[in-house]
Amino acid sequence: MSSQDRTSSRRARILKISAVTSAGALFLSGCSSDVQKGWLPTEHDTTNHTGRIMDLWVNSWIAALVVGILTWGLILWCIIAYRRRKNETGYPRQLSYNLPLEIFYTAIPLFMVLVLFFFTDQDIRALEARDDNPDVVVDVRGKQWSWDFNYVNEDKYYSGVQVNLDGQEKDEAEMPILYLPVNKSVELQLNARDVIHSFWVPAFLQKKDMIPGRTNYITLTPQQEGTFEGKCAELCGEYHSEMLFNVKVVSEAEYEAYLATLNDGQLGAEYDRNTNLNPTK
Ligand SMILES: [Cu+2]
C-alpha cells in the first residue's frame, strides 16, 4: 500500500467515525419530552387514544430513522470506498442480473411496508371501534361557519355563532364550546348542514370529515380536564378560518351544571340546508 493510499484510507475512517458520532449525538440529545412526544401538541393521556397514536407516530419515526441512518451510511461508504482513484480509467466492473441482490432489495422494502401496515391497521381498528353504550352522545353539526352541538341523551342543544377574526384578540367567551365530562366514553356523531367540513381537535390527535347526508363517528374518552382548541379542517368557504370552537373537558358536576343552562330540544337534520339532499328547501 502506498503512503497516498494509507492517507486516504485513514481519511475515510475518520469520515465514517465522525458521521456515526454525530448521528449518535443527535439521537441522544433528543431525549427531551418534546422529542419523546414526537413534537405532537398533546400529552400521552389527553384521551384514551392519544397515547396509542403518539406511540405509532414516534415508533414510525424511529423505524424511519434507523432505515435512514443505515441507508445514508451505506451510501457514504460506497461513495468513499469505491470512489475513482488516480490512474483509473474506463468503467468499474458492472453488476447486473444479480438475483440474490434483486430478491434482497425487493423483499426488504416489502417487509418494511408490511410492518408499517400491520401496526397502522391494528391502531386504526382500535380507534374506529364504536362503543355500544357510550356515556355521552353528541350530535355535532358543522355549518358555514360554526358549530351546533346536540347533547343527545339529555335532549339539550347549543347553537354556535361564527367567530369574528377581525385582527383583534378573539373573545374566548364568545367561541362555541363543546363540553365533555372527564373519564366518560363519548360518541361524537359528525354531520354537516351544507358543505363538507372536518372536525379537528389537534390535542386529541383525531380529525374526521363531516359530510352532508352521512354520519361519521369519533369515539373517545377524555382523560384530562382542560380547554382544547378545535377547528374546521376542510376548506369550506369564505370564512372557513373563523370556524373555530373550544372543547372543555370538565368534571361530571360541572358538565351537569353546564347542561342545565342549555335549552331543551335538538337542532337536528331539519335545519340542514343542502339543497341536493333536501330538494324542498
Ligand atoms: Cu368548515
From TrEMBL:
It catalyses: 4 Fe(II)-[cytochrome c] + O2 + 8 H(+)(in) = 4 Fe(III)-[cytochrome c] + 2 H2O + 4 H(+)(out). Belongs to the cytochrome c oxidase subunit 2 family. Pfam families: COX2 (PF00116). This is cytochrome-c oxidase. Gene3D superfamilies: 1.10.287.90, Cupredoxins - blue copper proteins (2.60.40.420). It comes from the Bacteria. Residues 133-261 form the Cytochrome oxidase subunit II copper A binding domain.
